[in-house]
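pls read this protein.

:::
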Amino acid sequence: MPSISRDEVAHLARLARLGVTDDELDTFAGQLDVILSSVAQIGEVAAEDIPPTSHAVPLTNVFRDDVIRPGLTRQEALDGAPAVEENRFRVPRILGEEQ
């Protein structure tokens, strides 16, 4: 059963440059002891025959097959455009209008 002393909490607080009162040292020592005990219990449960996982339920990505399909030709795309200039789509200017 892990146990953390009041002096160890004070040492950790100094390393972290935290201002901790005497009352807080006692409180934190108890809380950290509970946390360390819980972690130790988890370590006892985890056996070598259980593989480590990141999720309780196994997940797999679902991908569709990448199928190449023919698209529009350049001319077919330009034929549907509202404005064409020099064999390209013509769009309203949005940058540099103030200059």
The first strand starts at residue 84 and ends at 85. The mean pLDDT is 88.
